Amino acid sequence: MIQEPQLAYPIVVGTELLEGVGALAAQRGHGRAVVLSDANVEAHARRVAASFDTPTLLRTFGLGEERKTLATLAEVYGALAELEADRGTLVVGVGGGVAGDLFGFAAATYMRGLPFLNVATSLVAMVDAAIGGKTAVDLPAGKNLAGAFADPVAVVADVRALETLPAGQIREGLGEMVKHAVLAGAAAFEQLEHWAAAPFERWPWAELIERNVRVKAGIVARDPLERGERALLNLGHTFAHAFERESHYALSHGNAVAVGLRAAGIAAQRWGPWTERDQQRVVALLRALGLPLAYHGLDVDGVLAAMRVDKKRREGRLRFVLARALGDVVSGVELDDAVVREAVERCTR
Ligand SMILES: NC(=O)c1ccc[n+]([C@@H]2O[C@H](COP(=O)([O-])OP(=O)(O)OC[C@H]3O[C@@H](n4cnc5c(N)ncnc54)[C@H](O)[C@@H]3O)[C@@H](O)[C@H]2O)c1
Fold first, then answer.
1. How far apart are CA 251 and CA 146, in angstroms?
2. pLDDT at 315
3. Whose CA is nearest to atom 5 of ligand 1?
4. What is the number of the ligand 1 atom nearest to the C-alpha of 64?
């Protein structure tokens, strides 16, 4: 169990945990619960619902990013009303990052806030989305525009759930794991290099996920509302969001993060002490993990324009998060336009 001193909730990583959610909820002082699940993980959610001493109702929803909307949120509110959820009811959400963001936001706002327990079933959710208390749905104007900061009462990551996750979805989480390794330093990076060539079935998932959770949980505990240090988690993301947008989302977020990390490294070499050797290690690791290093054919000026409208823009200026060395990452860096252009050019041809 990971309990960051400044984080109000525990994050439990391991195996055989789905069957223990009822006991964990009881330990945290919660009795009655309802379980809301992504339909794709209904089998896992059934085990969660069965873990409560009292009969616990389960509702499933067909999800996916295209369903992370106000309309689906309304369906979830409707289910909570039908299930007669009230302030004394614990909402347990089961699924990937979409489920966590959507059910978490529903719980945070239904009757002005019900307690929420997040059972993360995708790699993205386990190493990233479930940690940090951000909840949201997408609006036509953009992703995650309607949301709230709302801490869960606990996060559960049962690594056996990954056995049913398609390999492509595992790969979606690997870019964030590389990012966390750059933030954490040489030992974490070497561990990922060591496992990169092995088939996923052999990976020590619990150990690796715990290490990732510690990186993110440590940062968000020190900066829960994203006023400073939390920006470090955007390493590679200013580039990634622009690549994603300019590809009209043909490039998935996970793959965009991989290309974005390479681009941020190219820029970091021009800007500071980030060495060719460190950059080559990042590139080799991304390659070994089967992640892309470039997305060919994007319009460079389009990517640069997309970057300028990125919400991480501050005071009209683009600022970047860049590594100086493994384990030494800084935010708020202003770069010459030529440096940004070169990084984008090299990652789009
Ligand atoms: N709140 C945050 O801080 C934060 C951080 C990162 C990402 N996110 C959000 O997370 C979302 C992406 O998360 P995601 O990649 O988990 O997407 P997702 O929830 O859509 O899951 C990906 C796919 O895997 C399926 N799935 C999940 N777990 C499974 C399992 N164990 N077995 C079989 N199939 C399974 C889902 O049904 C879906 O088809 C985005 O909406 C993003 O905005 C939020």
1. 24
2. 58
3. 129
4. 20
Going through 110-261 in order, the beta strands assigned E by DSSP cover 116-120, 134-139, 142-149, 154-158
Give the residue, by CA position, lying nearest to ligand 1 atom 4: 129
Shared domain check, 132 and 74: yes
Q: What is the CATH classification number for the domain harbouring 105?
A: 3.40.50.1970
Mutation choice for ligand 1 from 36, 40, 233, CB with most ligand atoms inside 8 A: 40
Alpha carbon distance 302, 180 (integer Å): 28
Which residues does a 6 A CB cutoff place in the pocket of ligand 1?
38, 40-41, 63-65, 68, 95-99, 101, 121-122, 124-125, 128-129, 132, 134, 143-144, 161, 164-165, 169, 172
Look up the CATH number of the domain holding residue 309: 1.20.1090.10
337-346 and 300-308 helices, crossing angle to 10° = 130
Pocket probe for ligand 1: among 44, 169, 230, 252, the residue whose CB has the most ligand atoms within 8 Å is 169
Mean pLDDT by 10 residues, the chain (349 residues): 85 97 97 97 98 96 98 98 97 98 98 98 98 97 95 98 97 98 98 96 97 96 92 97 96 98 98 97 98 97 90 68 98 96 97
- Asked if residue 110 and residue 78 are part of one domain, the reply reads yes
Q: Is residue 5 part of a domain?
A: no
Euclidean distance between the first and the last CA atom of the chain, given in angstroms as a whole number:
44
In the chain, what's the furthest Cα-to-Cα distance? 63
How far is residue 93's CA from residue 101's CA, in Å, rounded to a whole number? 9
Number of the ligand 1 atom closest to the C-alpha atom of 132:
3
Cβ proximity of 13 and 210 under 8 Å = yes
What is the identity of the amino acid at 140?
Answer: P
